[in-house]
Design goal:
5-stranded parallel β-sheet, about 25% strand, globular
Amino acid sequence: MKLQTFFFSKDERGGQARLIGEQLGDLFKCKCDQIPPAYQCNREKLVIITYEKYGKLQKKFTEFIESLTTEKVLNVALIELSNNGNEGFGDLEAIFDKNGVKVVETLGLKVKKGLFSSPKVTDEQIKEAVDFAHRIAASMFDSIN
């Protein structure tokens, strides 16, 4: 199985995106890494990217996304954590489209960020993200049921 999961947050420890990314890594028994990763993708059939979008996307995140060509990955699924659950999909899909990488599906999770508080995903949102990723992976890999 050629699958990887990645997560990105402005929080250097990975923030709430890390919680979901690590759940997915455990579920699929695959590598889960923070963006930018220690190791680049190599002809992955599916990459699942969980990211936090509060304000402008950071340069190191967009540079990584721009580096993903069909030589590195064929399909991506995006899970966004943001105030409205749909802030960065258009920009990212345009980058992937330009590089020939197929965005198979997106999931937006509304995770409100307060003025002085960090966003917090709920157990239900984590389950929703895991179910979303499992459904996509099961449709691409016979070994996942």
